[in-house]
Amino acid sequence: MATGEARAWDAVAEWYHAFFTGMVLSAVTRRSAADAAEFVFAVYRRQHLERFLPGLRKLGLDGKPDAVAAAQYHYLSNAIGGVNVEWIGESDRKSWVRYPPPRWMWHGTAICGVPGVVSRAMLRAWHAHNGVSLGNLRLGFVCTGQTVEGDPGLEGYYLEHDRDLAPEERLRFARHEQAPRFDAALAPVLASDTWPLARVMKAKRNYALAYVRTAIPAAIQLWGAAEASALLALTGRLVGMQLYRETAAALPAADFPGFMVALARAQGDDAEVVGPGVVRQASWTLMRGVADLHPAAFACWNGLLEGALAAHDRFAALKVTARLDLGDPWFEWQVVPRRMAATIGT
Which class for 138: exposed (0-12), middle (13-18), buried (19 or more C-beta within 10 A)? Predict the structure, then answer.
């Protein structure tokens, strides 16, 4: 694996990581904390249903006791994504997972804009549902701390009870408890024969992509195409402007069309410059196979490129001339002078 390729994958991972964090913050500030919590719940439940059981098998955890498998899944899958996680085993029926600061999801000062109800929504959507997915209604999650509420980490443990839990019992809080110290020597590790470095690096990129792949359709289903595309396209524009310089530095290109091609290829897509200022992208790895993909998803995603171009050259605009998602053989954009922007449509 070339160093440049790894650097490009890392840049893409941060690009989409920032986009998802921005979506949550936009929902909090431009809609409401309750709407943001509903959005986060929808994203994490959707991811859980799509990824949890297949992930257990890929990580070789499907033969372990349910509490241990659930906690170790979070440890290994998040570690692959570049997230700092700790796992502390206590017994076959009680197993801790802890996300110490700094929190990957709420990077830097973004954590100051995330209310506790949003973090609780994530726990309800995923951690509290692991027992249901495993067919073990005795398994629940006990949260002992939330970073966004001032605790020194998001932490808690999976506990297999002596009876089936009612839905409202699958997540409970015990702030008076604290996770034991983490010992890395006792934590699980990925098998190097099935998880070589190149696979881990690509999985880190895909980890961030998966949040956006899930979040855009979830927002459209929750808020409708018009409101979701307006909010997420604006978020994409802001993130694209903020991250353009550092992303472009990791994807060296002579001009903006070259940046678009390098970004697309680092995402796993087929793209090329086909004329002066004209870029074609013949695949869309981000949304491949999404069953409920709405045409508005493109506007949400395209906001990133529009923001990047605004940072690169505020006198230029992107004209969309073909849409792969609408049946054309590719996406096609043309970089044009901004004076033509009034005639541009997507």
Answer: middle
One-letter amino acid for residue 244 of the chain: Y
CB atoms within 10 A of CB 110: 15
Q: Which residue has the tokens 């880190």?
A: 204
CA distance 125 to 122: 5
pLDDT in tens, 129-155: 999 999 999 999 999 999 999 999 999
Tokens of 129: 């549902």
* Number of DSSP helices (H) and strands (E) in the chain, helices first: 9, 9
255 phi and psi, to 5 degrees? -155, 180
- DSSP character for 87? E
Range of the domain at 160: 3-186
> Phi and psi dihedrals of 223, rounded to 5?
-110, -5
| CA–CA dist 127, 202 (Å, integer) | 25
Sign of CA dihedral 300, 231, 119, 11: positive
In degrees and rounded to multiples of 5, residue 105 shows phi and psi of -65, -40
23 and 72 share one domain = yes
Write the CB contacts of 24 (distance below 8 Å, at least 6 apart in sequence). Answer: 36, 39, 40, 114, 118
pTM above 0.85, yes or no: yes
Instruction: Please tell me whether residue 195 adopts helix, strand or coil conformation.
Output: coil
Cα(123)–Cα(231) distance, rounded to whole angstroms? 25
**Tokens representing 167?**
């839905």
CB 286 within 8 Å of CB 301: yes
Helix axes 197-223, 66-80, angle to 10 degrees: 100
What total number of domains does the chain contain? 2
Q: Residue 332: which CATH number?
A: 3.30.1380.20
Backbone angles phi, psi at 141, to 5 degrees: -120, 135
Beta bridge partners of 89: 95
Q: What is the pLDDT of residues 211-226, one digit of tens each?
A: 999 999 999 999 999 9
